[in-house]
Design goal:
single chain; globular; eight-stranded mixed β-sheet; 31% helix; 19% strand; 295 residues; alpha/beta; Rossmann fold
Length: 295
């Protein structure tokens, strides 16, 4: 699982090393957005010191639903395609497998969105212009935010829970979208899934954690990126949710790379990095529409 997360981070770094150091970024490490079992849940903030466009993008630090910490000074290079265009990036860590499961991870990242929105002024971002992206399990969590966001509970005791967890744009790399086919006993379950304890779900929980089954007309504009040769998360996952989002009337695009698998080959990774930045620029740098406004 650790190797998969390192692969995810490495792939998303490719294509972003040119012009490194040409833009000043202020790093705010270890911002606490919640606690569980007496431990803090945190994210790091990477904010351009000049020419900020006021939009925020959350990166899901997740591979196999394992969420690792790395020094933010080492991570900032992977966010250059975004910070160079003025985006403030939030590297969000969630409760990690195997101690915590997928339901926990989804709850955590929703709370992260609520916290960032509630403290948007502090971070210099517009609460109505938040995007999210990630790879593999991080892509799944991104899609869960795009399809399963809510407006918050006005009667909640915790002020954070009163705030919306909706996002306004999503990019999901090689993302599992239907967990019902990954649970034990499912006909389409791949033997490789035995390596991921987070997938030890019952069918009922898998349904609630499957973005494919949650699509509705108010979902966020979504870019899907997938490798045709992916033998861990077959490309059918991306094709199926593309079709579901299209039927719901949601803006969606799928970029398929014929020569890539679960890890994109370098030339495809560079193109995908560019496409990611373009997508967020298209959907987050213009004025938020009434449909996307949140409280």
């Amino acid at each position: 699982m650790k190797r998969l997360l390192i692969l995810c981070l490495g792939v998303l770094t490719l294509g972003s090393t040119t012009a490194f150091g040409q833009i000043a970024v202020e790093i705010k490490p270890d911002i606490v957005y919640g606690h569980k079992d007496g431990l803090a849940m945190t994210f790091d903030v990477f904010q351009p010191k000049t020419d900020s466009n006021g939009a925020g993008v959350l990166f899901m630090v997740s591979g196999g639903w394992y969420s690792a910490w790395r020094p933010p000074e080492q991570m900032q290079i992977m966010f250059l395609p975004l910070t160079q265009r003025g985006f403030t990036v939030f590297a969000v860590r969630h409760g990690s497998s195997p101690k915590y499961g997928i339901v926990d991870a989804v709850s955590d990242v929703r709370r992260a969105v609520r916290t960032i929105r509630m403290r948007a002024e502090e971070f210099g971002v517009d609460p109505n212009r938040l995007g999210v992206y990630g790879m593999s399990a991080g892509g799944h969590l991104s899609l869960m935010l795009g399809t399963g966001g809510d407006d918050g509970d006005p009667n909640a005791k915790d002020p954070v829970d009163k705030v919306s967890s909706r996002v306004q744009a999503v990019v999901a790399y090689v993302a599992p979208t239907d967990l019902t086919i990954a649970v034990r006993g499912a006909p389409e379950r791949l033997p490789a899934y035995d390596r991921f304890p987070a997938l030890d779900l019952d069918l009922a929980a898998a349904k609630t954690m499957s973005p494919l089954l949650l699509t509705t007309s108010d979902d966020a504009p979504t870019l899907l990126i997938a490798g045709v040769k992916d033998d861990l998360v077959p490309i059918a996952h991306s094709r199926r949710i593309q079709e579901a989002l299209q039927k719901a009337g949601v803006t969606v695009e799928l970029i398929e790379y014929p020569e890539s698998g679960h890890g994109l080959v370098p030339q495809d990774a560079a193109k995908a990095s560019q496409a990611t930045a373009d997508w967020f620029e298209k959907h987050l740098t213009k004025s938020a529409s009434p449909k996307s406004e949140t409280k």
